[in-house]
Amino acid sequence: MELRESLRTVDPLVECRSVIRDYRTGGEITRALDDVSMVCLPGRMTVIAGASGSGKSTLLGLVAGLDRADDGLVLVAGADVGSLSRRGRRRLRRDHVTMVMPQPSDNLFDHLSVGENIVWSAGRSGRVVDPVRVLDQVELGHRSQASVREMSGGEQQRVAIAAALAAGAPVIAADEPTASLDRQSAALVIAALRAGAAAGVCVLVATHDEDVIGAADDVVRLDHGRRLS
Ligand code: ADP
User: Fold this and answer.
1) Number of the ligand 1 atom closest to the C-alpha atom of 57
2) Is the CB of 22 under 6 A from ligand 1?
3) How remote is the CA of residue 188 from the centroid of ligand 1, in Å?
């Protein structure tokens, strides 16, 4: 029985099948994603890696329902994101995929305290949480009363990850979360993302930061919109 349990396959929370995304500007077409497939599992940190312009943000945006694929399928928790209405895609971001944006200040309300940000984020999906306990997961439980404005960029990103955890969505999608940070702060953000995966969340990160890539469980490498490995 135990062996059977451990051999049971885990269903992917995110699945992309042969995704194509073209941008049309003027008369030109840029193929941002060219036949990309991937699966992301709960409890694992999957990194979408590649140089600038390789399609990372486009892929993340499709998973979060910010954009639609021209061809192929994007599934989150089994639901076809491309067929969702605008309202359905807003719900997707509220209930299933929490985004963490590259700029720390874009992720938090700076007129609220750190703890209030956590409570607000949880409350959006009707959850009630103890902000200190949530913040403990990213080693910031002692800063619950602090003003967001007092926190460094790296600390703000860790609060943003804690807020995403408080929201209870099964997927956290982080776009270049260490882009504006020094290496030391980035290491703490990576630890916070790993804490999310340890808590069972499907953590999906777009980055070209080698330290983040090195901390991944699974890596999806993109080059000019094509998957390399
Ligand atoms: P990355 O996140 O890896 O830097 P992007 O997904 O942002 O890559 O971009 C992939 C490609 O699509 C690039 O060639 C980029 O110039 C192009 N692109 C991205 N967004 C748009 C847009 N809104 N309109 C036109 N081209 C775009």
Assistant:
1) 2
2) no
3) 28
pLDDT digits (tens, 9 = 90+) for 16-69: 999 999 999 988 999 999 999 999 999 999 999 999 999 999 999 999 999 999
CA of residue 67 to ligand 1 center, whole Å:
12
CA 215, 201, 13, 5 torsion-angle sign: positive
Report d(CA 132, CA 112) in Å as an integer: 15
What's the confidence (pLDDT) of residue 1? 45
Cβ–ligand 1 distance for 43 under 6 Å, the answer no
Dihedral angle over CA of 111, 116, 122, 127, nearest 10 = -140
Please state, in angstroms and rounded to a whole number, the distance separating the CA atoms of residues 199 and 133. 13
Q: pTM of the predicted model, to two decimals?
A: 0.91
Q: Delimit the domains of the chain by residue range.
A: 41-66+85-227
Cα–chain center distance at 106: 14
Is pLDDT at 172 greater than 80 in this prediction? yes
The CB of 24 under 6 Å from ligand 1? The reply is no
Q: Judge whether residue 209 has pLDDT over 90.
A: yes
56 lines ligand 1 (CB under 6 A): yes
CATH topology (fold) of 41-66+85-227:
Rossmann fold (3.40.50)
DSSP codes, 150-194: GS-HHHHHHHHHHHHHHHT-SEEEEESTTTTS-HHHHHHHHHHHH
Atom of ligand 1 nearest to the CA of 24: 25
Of all protein residues, the one whose alpha carbon is nearest to atom 14 of ligand 1 is: 53
